[in-house]
Amino acid sequence: MRKWFGRWRRGGEASCAEVAQVLQSYLDGRVDDLTARRVRRHLEHCRRCGLEAETYEAIKAALARRSHQVDTDALQRLRAFAQRLGEQGPAGTSTPMS
Amino acid sequence: MPAGTEEQRRKAFATYVMPEIEVLLRVARTLVPRPADAEDLVQDTLVRAFRAIDSFDGRHPRAWLLTIMRNAQINRTRRRRPELLDDPDGTLERMRDAEHDHGSPEAVVVGRLFEGIVMDALDVLPGRFRRVVELVDIDGLSYAEAAEVVGVPVGTVMSRLHRARARIRDRLTAAGLAPRGGPG
Ligand SMILES: [Zn+2]
User: Fold this and answer.
1) Which runs of consecutive H residues, i.e. helices, occur in chain B?
2) Number of domains present in the structure of chain A
3) Is ipTM over 0.85?
4) Domains in chain B and their CATH numbers?
């Protein structure tokens, strides 16, 4: 009876401890559908785990914001470089770029 | 080289390499602190990719290019003496850039504080932890792609990444910007 109940619970929703273990993988989209569903159900009502998830999401968002600083000039130079390389081979790129 | 091969090579280069230049530049900026060196590294990678394109099977071009970049980088660090830098990780630059964020006054303050602590926490992480965070969360690589760049198994990337983020989280908690959390 207890065993059956445990399995039923696991099929429906993850526990706090389980969520703690897979939370980052879940937020990275690296868990299977069943696990994702069970975690999602838990996060819907568990405030503590919900806050934990929010914190990790905010960390990821803060880090992702750092990625917008691509040097567009450098990117343009490199695209031009690659263009010449593709068309003329390494010999076409040996002259210094201006 | 035979005439047909040259055309094929040009096509393969345009198809597989050209679309990845931006990602290569992002990753290079993570691998080397100086922008000019990063640009050099990408050029080096492009030349190597061009030379190797005949033997590339067309699968996972990004992973292939990142492996080339990693080898190019290893080569460069062997060739060159490491140079002393005033701001090796670009921390000052990052902090300065944080000044230009927008939003409501409180959101700006809290957001800036939060972000400042995240970046601080990132800076004090051991290099092998910091690198995976930079590659995955900042540069947007997949676990597998980051594994190519670092030269470790995917599982290692994952465990380093998770531990690194947990440490960042601990710092936020210490600063009162995140709940205490953790399993009870
Ligand atoms: Zn919970």
Assistant:
1) 3-12, 21-31, 35-52, 61-79, 91-98, 105-124, 127-133, 143-150, 154-174
2) 1
3) no
4) 1-86 (1.10.1740.10), 99-184 (1.10.10.10)
